[in-house]
Amino acid sequence: MPDSPGKDSAKRLSDTREDDSHGGYFHNKRVKQRAQDRALQAQMPAGSTSRVLSGCTVYVNGHTDPPRLALHDLVVRHGGVFLHYLSSKGAATHIVAEHLPPRKRVEFRNCKVVSPRWLLDSVQQGRQLPWAPYSVLGGSAAENTLTLAGADTIAVAAESSTIPNASVNTRTVPSVNTPTVAAERTNTPTPNVSAPTVAAGNSNTPNVASPTVPTAPAPSTRADAFPTAASDPEAFLRSYFEHSRLHKLSEWKARLRQEFVRAHSAEPPLTAPPSRVLHIDFDCFFATVAFLHRDKRRFPALDFARDPVAVCHGRGSSDVASCNYAARALGVRNGMWAASAQRRMPAGTTLTLLPYDFAAIEAASATFYAVLRGCPDFRWVLPVSIDEAVCVLRGEGEDEIVLAEQLRRAIRERTGGCTASVGIGASLVLARLALRLAKPDGVYAAGGDPSPPDSFWEQFSVRDLPGVGGAAAAKLGGADTATLGTLRHSTTLPSLQTQLGNKLGGKVWAALHGQDDPESQRMLLDPCAVFDRKSVAVDINWGIRFATVAQVDAFLDVCAGYVANKLRECGKRAGSVTLKLHRRAAGAPVEPPKYLGMGRCDAVSQAAGLGVPSGDVGVLATELKALFRALAVPVQELRGVAVHLAKLCGDQEAGPRTPGQWLGKGRVGAGALPAPVSTTPKATTPKGGAGPSANASAERYRRLRVSPVKDRAAVPRPAASDPGVAAFLEALPSQLQREVRRDLAGAIGETTGGGRGRLRAEMQRRAEAARAVNAHLTGSGGTLLAPVRFQGEASFKRVCRTVEAWVAATCSGDGPNDGPHERDVHVFLRYVEKLCAGDRVHLALRVASLVSTALALREGSCGDTRAYAEWEHILVRRVLPVLNRNRLTFQTERKLDVEWEV
């Protein structure tokens, strides 16, 4: 039966779909577009074309200036190939873009992404210019890898687009030895526009907040708008501290406590706990100040009591620093992301996000403390934070609530509307609990003698106690839901110490009975001792992205200068320094959801004692660099850096300055050393005789250069079989018994003749060493260093030729293996380790640089890109850690270049 017309139509439609499939369609489209480009080039005047861009296949991504059509005409006119559709990343040799979103930066991390200026400048100069200075990946602060202006490139693929199969590169850091094009633009936005934040589900279109004053390290989308830790560490640190809320809180707190110590250092401490304590705290301080000083043109009809208001930096991953009680009633909490807070809003309700106003916050805090310090009823006003204080009454009175109301009224009037709450109690913990009942905008006094009644304790859970968190509540087994009234009658001190530990258990038991722990009591009795500066620290947990060790060294120099200035301001010196590094955790994404944040990290730290307390920048910087190399964290994995100085002492305690000491500030001279070190031992004169003459002294020192062995008096040694010794050994633990028996056996061996042979061998060794020194100094052919051999060859020049030939053979692509053999790599690493261990780090650096140079010369002609990537992995992951672990690498200042152009 013949097919029906319907079947014929379906068959023809099926054939058409098979012929015009997805791949065939785009293939035919590319063929037609290239034919049109060739026809367009043929129609152009003879003098207007060139072959400058010959060999370049260009793809334009996004909006550019000049526009896409103009760039298409430029590429075709000068011999290049223009791609209208990017079928794969390897199809284009160059990707042209003005800027890229974070997701595209990860996608194109192994590609040559340049700005349109590269095409224009290349055509203008008649040759293809180096692409790295025009790299978009290296010229934007919004990228995953920050600008590395003026720095050399680490060995992870400056032009790794030629090795698309290289699996060892987790991220690419392009080489940028010249200024980026972004620095030449004039339409740079100023830093007072809050940064774009990328939501979790939309990485292509960042949400740019409305123009608000930023108050945290959230940079704009341009590298020149916010300095980077790698390119300009000093400007980065200054901008970070200028915009960081936590830094300002810490600085204000430290300054308030220093002012308290200076004002009350002459007063004696209390001998008995105070009778009444007032705990005063602002209500949602940051949110209230932001509301009072808001832009009334943008927020004209905003009711702070009813409308939810929060203070943060942006609208995406910015943390909510403070929110009013209307927002808290809807589930908003301090510390959550702004995007999460907005999702908690019910339909028809908008969460108003306000910017910080640090000047107004500082002014309101100053007014707050001025009101409290002006009250004559307070013996001490103890600063807890900029918006929180503990006030100790001079005596016991009956008008505490009246006094608290007067203070609240004065604070509200003088700050222009900021409300405060007051909790009153016989101890600090009772005042803190009473403050919880007083909030918001109220006063509560915890009465009772000696402890408040059970009705007071029934209003709190164990989580309300200061210092008790979720982990401690979980150990108590459901105590997070039980009230303190139930807990204080059902537990004992031994049971709490068994569950929580001795310290925390004792603290909870004391709090349940209305008593302060020893630390809180000490703050009330002797606040000057508690508030005196014990440490100085700097913690950077945002924007830390480096590519080279030199950049980390420069950043540590700036951190050392910052903490040294803090030491100088408080008149202290540090006895120990600790470096804490946050390393990207295994399996964590290279770029976390929070823009340039730390993400999931592993923290490692190491401390070093300074011996003599010091505040010198050079000493601190040297110790920090040594600690960084001891921790051996790859620079690309760094996400946070913290420097902590402890064991602080005053300048006078560290040692007085004398004219004979070093003239530089903070340098440690002989006067700062302990007495046994700084003083010269006095020469003793034998009784009945005169002191030695000058000639005799010189002769004596000449004789002692060889350190002769002195005659020893025969002292009888105890034997392990002696009854007294045996009884003594039986009373010792077994491990100590073995050590003592071993020592006795060695001592007995020395007296039986074996020791004489060892002494004779030692004298012979010293004599040979002295002959070697003389031969080395006089040029008679001796040497101090034993030769280090590689494949049986001791000549370093011949070793270099062998290594160069080895690199050439492994990169030729003719062999059956991809890259060097693992056994050969192991032998090479052993050779580098022996060079470093033998105090010949310069030779290790030379042979490593030789490998890097050989790879750079063969990059274009390398037959096997996988071999090139394998060598790249060996240099970065295996050779560089060996050099960094060496004890001599960090003892010179920027004299060892351990970065390579690979």
UniProtKB/TrEMBL annotation:
Q: Is Nucleotidyltransferase among this UniProt entry's keywords?
A: yes
**Span of domain BRCT:** 48-136
The UniProt keywords, alphabetically, are:
DNA damage, DNA repair, DNA synthesis, DNA-binding, Magnesium, Metal-binding, Nucleotidyltransferase, Nucleus, Transferase
- Report the Pfam families cross-referenced here: BRCT_2 (PF16589), IMS (PF00817), IMS_C (PF11799), IMS_HHH_1 (PF21999)
One GO term describing the cellular component = nucleus
Report a single Gene Ontology molecular function.
Answer: damaged DNA binding
Q: What class of enzyme is it?
A: transferase
Q: Say yes or no: keyword Nucleotidyltransferase present.
A: yes
Listed Low complexity bias regions: 204-221
InterPro entries reported for this sequence: BRCT_dom, BRCT_dom_sf, DNA/RNA_pol_sf, DNA_pol_Y-fam_lit_finger_sf, DNA_pol_Y-fam_little_finger, IMS_HHH_1, REV1, Rev_trsase/Diguanyl_cyclase
Q: Where is the composition biased (Basic and acidic residues)?
A: 1-22
What superkingdom heads the lineage? Answer: Eukaryota
> Which cofactors?
Mg(2+)
Q: Record-annotated residues binding Mg(2+)?
A: D281, D387, E388
How is its cofactor bound, per UniProt?
Binds 2 magnesium ions.
Taking every annotated instance into account, which residue ranges of this chain make up the domain UmuC?
Answer: 277-469
Q: Which GO terms describe its biological process?
A: DNA repair; error-free translesion synthesis; error-prone translesion synthesis
Compartment list: Nucleus
Family the UniProt entry places it in? Belongs to the DNA polymerase type-Y family.
Query: Do you know which PANTHER family this protein is assigned to?
Result: DNA REPAIR PROTEIN REV1
Role played:
Deoxycytidyl transferase involved in DNA repair. Transfers a dCMP residue from dCTP to the 3'-end of a DNA primer in a template-dependent reaction. May assist in the first step in the bypass of abasic lesions by the insertion of a nucleotide opposite the lesion. Required for normal induction of mutations by physical and chemical agents. Involved in mitochondrial DNA mutagenesis.
Its name, as the record gives it, is DNA repair protein REV1
Which species is this UniProt entry from? Maudiozyma humilis (Sour dough yeast)
